[in-house]
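yo, Malate dehydrogenase is done. seq:
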Amino acid sequence: MVKAVVLGAAGGIGQPLSLLLKASPLVSALALYDIVNTPGVAADLSHIATPSKTEGFLPPDDGLAKALTGADVVVIPAGVPRKPGMTRDDLFKINAGIVRDLATGIAKTCPKAFVLVISNPVNSTVPIVAEVLKKHSVFDPKRLFGVTTLDVVRASTFVGEITKTDPQQVVIPVVGGHSGVTIVPLLSQSSAPLPSSFAGAELDALIHRIQFGGDEVVKAKDGAGSATLSMAYAGAEFALKVIRAAKGEKGIIAPTYVYLDDAAKSLVGNGVDVDFFSTNVELGPDGVKEIKSLGSLTDKEKALVAAAIPELKTNIEKGVAFINAPKL
Ligand SMILES: NC(=O)C1=CN([C@@H]2O[C@H](COP(=O)(O)OP(=O)(O)OC[C@H]3O[C@@H](n4cnc5c(N)ncnc54)[C@H](O)[C@@H]3O)[C@@H](O)[C@H]2O)C=CC1
Ligand SMILES: O=C([O-])CC(=O)C(=O)O
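structure:
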């Protein structure tokens, strides 16, 4: 029995993500929460002939608590998306409060659920969730994940094109965070190696495309939002990995933005001294089973990791301060 909950389920990501979760036989109950439209989305999905029972909830009558009751996995794509010219950090003003309130609901109703945060800016929203859970004395760092899978999916797609390899077979760790220079693809570890001639400006352009893939979609959508369908694909892929590992499947490893204690920091190495960082993580029945080291990096990759740290620190501090700053 696995109950999955989507918070922000009526949105551009929420709807196709809910569809993919409804399509999976691994999910036995699916609760959809949003401030609008979830009864319709749930009624629509409920006609799909898969085992999960689908229900929609709105804020009145304790809808959030009802949706979250008994949750095993909570995926959060609630909040506003970017428009051209905005950074992910520009979304903080609105999304920080949305994520704080949803995290409070999780802390009160389903503190043992796995929490998967999609809402941007992920570098800050994950620390926000952690601080809320800490305030309720229910923070378990093994159960909180920032979803950076779309960066991994993009890296696989772009490298698959270059190496003429099936992109589904291309495995590339993308580490760091989820915005611009904090996104660090470890291309030297690609399962489909780039040709040795692929260097200099060509390599720089590929790294830039992975780091700023989100901007490509924001620009193409021209004011109508950011990536939704590819994010739903990536979010479902990661959520189903968490569920498969929870059910006992072994050897599932994926990059995800997680809390690092001091031991994990020294394991990750390479000067990573931030409290949250995306790195390869082995998933297990209780969530994070083992945080993996970054492995051996090229000089270029070391420089990219170093360049990611200052922005990550600022983003993390901003999230932590949002919850802990004294109210005036
Ligand atoms: N982690 C990642 O890789 C990615 C993250 N994102 C982020 O995901 C978020 C959602 O993006 P879209 O689905 O395109 O936006 P959207 O605007 O289409 O959908 C957001 C949904 O959240 C709902 N919502 C707003 N306040 C809420 C609240 N208090 N409780 C519950 N639901 C609430 C809205 O009603 C709406 O249905 C954005 O912050 C976006 O930047 C987008 C793409 C990739
Ligand atoms: O670019 C955005 O704002 C949405 C996002 O996080 C992505 O597509 O990676």
